[in-house]
Amino acid sequence: MATKQVTLAITGASGAPYALRLLEVLVKADIDVFVLMSSAAKVVFATEENMKFPGNPEAASAFLGQHFNAREGQITVFGRDDWFSPVASGSAAPKQMVICPCSTGTLSSVAVGASDNLIERAADVILKERGQLLLVTREMPLSSLHLENMLKLSQMGAIIMPASPGFYHNPQNIGDLVDFVVARILDHLGVDHTLMMRWGYQPSNKN
């Protein structure tokens, strides 16, 4: 059987730890990940995680592959204008895509089908092919325009998942709060995990 594939787009909203943890667990689950990263996202990663990504997509793929001990070819990074990448076409794109974190600027562009860069085009492909698009939004407070864009995308079939961790699992550190959000993303992607206990169940050991 073909290896499961997921597109992970990372934009310039605060929330780099969510993207890193999600990518880590996807790699551990032996899923191939196509990574799309905006220029603003690289600034956020340097600020929040002290991580500087190579500008070249091939070098960035190798950097992430080494960082997460991924198998060869498991993580592929594409440039913002790589229109020949699989994610740019409905005939080749994965059926699942997560934008994590999702800036309100990206939210707006996806809502109107701008497709001015590969992240926006990949999201447009998922919507037109009736795939699964998850947007992990990160902003507060939300303006009426933000809410209108969320409603519009929800009505198109996208899933709006604000990065709003719960507290019923008694988090002990920031990592526990990150895992709460990532666990919910994985649930929607159909990826098994033991990041946190489920409501009504006993806690499990983490991956």
CATH architecture descriptor name: 3-Layer(aba) Sandwich
In which range does the helix fraction lie?
25-40%
Number of strands: 6
Shape designation: globular
CATH superfamily (homologous) name = Flavin prenyltransferase-like
Mean pLDDT: 94
Q: Beta-strand level of the residues, as a percent range?
A: 5-15%
CATH class: Alpha Beta
Largest sheet: 6 strands, parallel
CATH topology: Rossmann fold
Calculate Rg over CA atoms.
16 Å
In DSSP terms, counting alpha (H) and pi (I) runs of 4 or more, how many helices? 7
Q: What pattern of helices and strands is seen along the backbone?
A: EHEHHEEHHEHEH
Can you list the strand order of the major beta sheet? 3-2-1-4-5-6
Structural class: alpha/beta
N/C terminus separation: 24 Å
